[in-house]
Amino acid sequence: MGNVILKNVVKQFGDVVAVNDVNIDIKDGEIVSFLGPSGCGKTTTLRMIAGLDRPTDGEIYLDDRLVSSKDEFVPPEARNLGMVFQNYAIWPHMTVFHNVAYPLKLRKVPKQDIRDKVSHTLELVGMAGFEKRYPSQLSGGQQQRVALARALVMEPTAMLLDEPLSNLDAKLREHMRFEIMELHKKTNITVIYVTHDQSEAMVLSDKIVVMNQGSIQQIGDAVSVYHEPANKFVADFIGLANFINCKLTKKENHEGEVVLLGTSTERVLKCSLPHSQDASPGEQGVVFIRPENIRLVPPEEGSLVGRIRRKAFLGNVIEYWVEIDGQEWRVESNPELNYDLDTEVGLQIKEAVFLRD
User: Are the CB atoms for 19 and 49 separated by under 8 Å?
Assistant: First the structure.
């Protein structure tokens, strides 16, 4: 079993509350990402799970065993967790074999068992045949595989990964995401993954924990946090979005209509209402619309009309910034439909979501 539970966990550094009343239930075999901007508390939360930091308040359980509370604290070496850091932290003076074998030697595992376990683990991470090489003879991706192998070799309850791919270039980072996914399929180990990269979290995770200013904003899978964000912060942090001030005027179940505010004429849009929000007609908030959910059409066919002020060719799409009543709307469009700057265009909205401020 590799379940990890945090109950009302708080961490203060002096007067600064770094983690504020965090509750998470991570099930055995899940990949869970802590996602958020720098300083949001995600790494501090990971360090408390690892035992590197002690919570100010709250409880942490590993395999239903209490490891952190006001009265109980199990040290890191007794928690049976594997940890992989951003900078790999592998010993430069040791070969690949000895780097991976190191935690087993500390536990005084018999030599033959060490050889067998190291060989098996290097095979798992695709590093068989590299046993005699030193870190300086390896690429960044290979060094990261060695770090993964060293964390896996002792058969931990869970793996804790703290932004492990951020030092790699973009293509290698993308490749390593799928390597980690394949490794998880082979081992079915619980993985807790800290990242500020939304794409990384969405590709890897069974569950995403979105954090900001020490608090959890939303917990859900990639589809739910993308399409049904709990608030404006989540909508803005996960993907691109347009936000327009509005007032909810009509509601029926989880569908409604909003009137856009700050426009020269009354503009009404249909929208969906997240299940997590029990909004009522008359409430003000924002309507958020993903750029890919806006279609550019001739002015007479659009529910909104604006003028193209900026554009950027990105290969698979062209991004346009369309001005409507002094506000710019970001739109992604098929590159076959290439509009010139200052062209008047209509906007058809395929999907909009109302959020409370």
Answer: no
SS (H, E, C) 312-335: EECCCCEEEEEEECCEEEEEEECC
Is pTM beyond 0.85? Reply is: yes
Cα–Cα distances (Å) from 263 to 268, 269, 284, in that order, read: 11, 13, 15
pLDDT on residue 209: 98
Q: Could you tell me how far CA 272 lies from the centroid of its own chain?
A: 24
User: Would you say residue 72 has pLDDT above 90?
Assistant: yes
Two tokens, residue 336 = 């076959």
Give Cα separations from 308 to 247, 264, 323, 329, 341 (angstroms).
26, 18, 6, 9, 5
> What are the residues facing 282 on neighbouring strands?
none
Q: What is the pLDDT of residue 275?
A: 67
| DSSP conformational letter for 339 | P
What's the token pair of residue 194? 């800290």
Residues near 304 by beta carbon (within 8 Å), at least 6 away in sequence: 267, 324, 329, 346, 347, 349
d(CA 145, CA 122): 8
Q: Which of 105, 106, 83, 211 is nearest to 156 (CA)?
A: 83
Q: CA-CA distance, 190 to 160, in Å (whole number)? A: 9
Single-letter residue type at 60: I
What distance in Å separates the CA atoms of residue 279 and residue 161, rounded to the nearest whole number? 38
Three-class DSSP category at 121: helix
Strands (E), the chain: 4-13, 16-26, 31-35, 57-62, 65-68, 81-84, 158-162, 190-195, 207-212, 215-220, 242-252, 255-260, 268-272, 284-289, 294-297, 304-313, 318-324, 327-333, 344-349, 353-356
Which H or E run contains 236?
A: helix 232-237
* SS3 category, 65: strand
